[in-house]
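Box 3.1 A note on notation
Throughout this textbook, protein chains are presented in two layers. The first layer is the amino acid sequence; the second is a token string describing backbone geometry. Keep the layers aligned when reading.
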Amino acid sequence: MDSKIILTVAVPSYNRPATLEKLIKQFQCEDQTKFKLLISDDASPDNPTEMIRKYQREIPNLIYHRNEKNLGFSGNVCQLYDMTETPFIWFLCDDDTIIPGCINLVVDSLIKYDPTVAVYNHTWINPYGIKKMAGVETDRIYNSESEIKDYGVLMRMTFLSSLVLKRILSSDEIKKTDYLSNVFVQLSLALLLLSERFRYAEISAHILHRNVGYKYGEFFKFYIVDTLRAIFGVKHKLNNKKFMNWTIKEIPTAFLLYLSQKLGLFKYSGITTKRTIKEIIQYYGIYSIAIFSFVPIYYLTPAFILKLIYKLQLYSLHGK
């Protein structure tokens, strides 16, 4: 591997050959001397091997690995981290869209700031059809946890595709935890890295467009519990109380998201397990009462009222 290259773009992929191929084509237009593209296919039934081999003949820095058995999302993410040989790794979901020139923007900022963890700006289309930007207007560098008052800044690490990590540790500590059932394994990993060397960067460079999904797993596990599992599941040096305070403040947002299922904007599936119920009580204490009220309020709220409110908001934004 070229020792001058400092960045690996690591793509965990599963059964989405069309969006994966689209992503590979986008990287053909980037500066091939500045990055490695590492794809790990998690034993997809729709095997993309032949498609990827075709592009390997055209993209010399494309590295392809196919798991013999399915590791699950978190297992695949950890494997990509361990396989990476460059100083930095940018995780990228196989259904997102990069912005032309993103590689130069990422590499230049890594050289300039040498962060342990960096998050970058991205756009997405919200449920009202408006393109939004997530991130900061100017670069922000934090050299101490005490410089961060609102841990919402750190919770930006939950979005995998905007995250770049410096490889200063292995994933061994992660593998001692129940990480395979958690979709936010990158959050655990980032917290361990920051505990070793705190240098956190919010970079204003716009590097990708997030193609928001609308179908997810079980709501209370995915949205209410998994982030806290990722935070409390590893022995890091950051303030768990501040993480908890931020999460409690987000309960009203979680409630609105849960209600939005009646509009068909999002769809969560699966049955809430006893473990998830137990952990909601454990983590949220008295606030768990508000969380458990989501379900009866959802069923008691007429769908036509929510749809009327939504249509009025659309009308106010877009006109007739």
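The CA atoms of residues 137 and 211 lie 22 Å apart. The chain has a mean pLDDT of 94.
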